[in-house]
Amino acid sequence: MGDEVSPRRLVAVFASPVAEALLRFGSELGFQTVLVEPDPTRLGGTPRPHGDTFVGDLAAAELDEHTDVVLTDHHRNEIGAVLEETLERPTRWIGIVGNPRHEGPHVAALRELGVADEQIARVRRPIGLNIGSRTGPEIAVAILAGLIADRNDRPGGFEF
């Protein structure tokens, strides 16, 4: 079957249109996908048919060195605590969605929790390829394209 792909895991934190698309497309692209939603009222009923796992906290997501973590909503009050816990784990990659023209609210939230600047710098923002994405599925495609490029040790974009 050719080159084997490492057992990459994609953990989408917070139920959102971006998370929904990340789970749907990510599983098709060879990622083991997990949704972490700390607020059970936001899951909206029964789990959707795509995505390998739906859990309520990061401990249940079993983050490891093969895990890419994407916070899909930068407006949630939990971002500081969730990122602080994520930074304590041996994750491979951590990112949060948001407008690249403004400092993300995660920076102040992490500083308030006493997280060191070198740890805060591990959180990538913006994330994904710059393709002008606007909708949840478009943002997910941009993120996944960037993760695939990274998985394949490529820069992304149109440089070959």
Give the arrangement of secondary structure elements.
Blueprint: E1 9-13, H1 17-28, E2 32-36, E3 53-55, H2 58-61, E4 67-71, H3 79-87, E5 93-96, H4 105-112, H5 117-120, E6 123-124, H6 136-151
Parallel strand pairs: 1-2, 1-4, 2-3, 4-5, 5-6
Helix pairs in contact: 1-6, 3-4
Span of the ends, CA to CA:
24 Å
Q: What is the C-alpha radius of gyration, as a whole number of Å? A: 15 Å
Sheet with the most strands? 6 strands, parallel
Number of helices: 6
The percent range for helix content is 25-40%
Strand content: 15-25%
What gross morphology would you assign? Answer: globular
Describe the structure.
The protein has 160 residues and is of the alpha/beta class. The chain has helices spanning 17-28, 58-61, 79-87, 105-112, 117-120, 136-151, and strands at residues 9-13, 32-36, 53-55, 67-71, 93-96, 123-124. The chain has a six-stranded parallel β-sheet, sandwiched between helices. α3 (79-87) links the parallel β4 and β5.
Which tags fit this structure?
160 residues, six-stranded parallel beta sheet, 6 helices, 15% strand
Short characterization:
By secondary structure, the chain is of the alpha/beta class. It contains six helices and six strands; from the N terminus they run E-H-E-E-H-E-H-E-H-H-E-H. The radius of gyration is 15 Å and the shape is globular.
